Amino acid sequence: MDPTARKYTLEAGKIGRLALEYAQSLIEPGALLLDVAEKTEQFIRDNGGFPSFPLNLSINNEAAHYTPIPGDKKVFRTGDLVKVDIGAHVEGYISDNAATVEVGNTGKYSDLIQCSRDALNAALKVLRPGIEINRIGAAIGHVIESYGFKPVKNLGGHGIKQYDLHSTIFIPNYDDGNQRRIEQQQLIAIEPFASTGIGLIHNGPGGNIYIYSGTKKTKGDPVVDNFNTLPFAERWLAKIMPEYKDYLRRGLFMKQISHFAVLREHKGAMISQAEHTILFDGDTVTVTTA
Questions:
Q1: 71, 73, 18: which is closest to 46 by C-alpha?
Q2: Is 46 noted as a catalytic residue in this protein?
Q3: Is 158 annotated in the active site?
Q4: Domains of the chain, earliest start first
Q5: Is 76 helix (H, G, I), strand (E, B) or coil?
Q6: Which residue has the higher pLDDT, 39 or 215?
Q7: For the segment 70-108, what is each residue's pLDDT rounded down to a tens digit?
Q8: pLDDT for 219-234, tens place per residue?
Q9: Which position among 65, 89, 158, 276 bears the catalytic label?
């Protein structure tokens, strides 16, 4: 990898890790989701990066893609199982990491939380240059099933490129038989999701996260100018343009903007998540968010 790109990638990983730790420290019964999101995203900016996507605070049967709206009054409640997913970018070089916390630490979901952590660690242990994708998935799935839970089969890790949070490569949570190898100079996110249910998710309502999806980036467009091709929050847009709701309606209608749906477990069961970003660079494998 180009030395400058590597430098920015490692910086983004460090900032993302610190932001994830900071976000978790803010979560307690009665805390506003909006306050946690705004403080965590500002923490990233204060530490020399930018959020690579809005802080995801997905609760209980939600796997991903909920972030607060402007003025959101939603609060954390004791016993909530929260997937905390955040990353940073430096000049478009991205990190992505996540953890699961139980609000109030009642211990009800300790095994489920530990399960996704152990599955992630098992995946990291088998990593080597040129590893087959299904071997990563097999390591994840084996641990999750050993706990008596189900790996979420239609959700998983992904490739990452500059200003591209989800590139084409998919890292499964089970052995899907895909023997494609991880390439040199490739950045990936590995994110085991474990479920107390059947291990499938579906699209719910919109989660207040959007992304520019037009075929041509138009200079002067507020989204392109401020967020490039990375996901952004409705509340971010509200801070830079008063007519943001009209902009979003037009953009969605013209297919210039796409809306992320909240991902929910198919039968309403609980889900846990853990995630790291990993850089494959020549003969070295580096967990950038460790």
A1: 18
A2: no
A3: yes
A4: 3-204+268-287 (3.90.230.10), 207-261 (1.10.10.10)
A5: coil
A6: 39
A7: 999 999 999 999 999 999 999 999 999 999 999 998 899
A8: 788 899 999 999 999 9
A9: 158
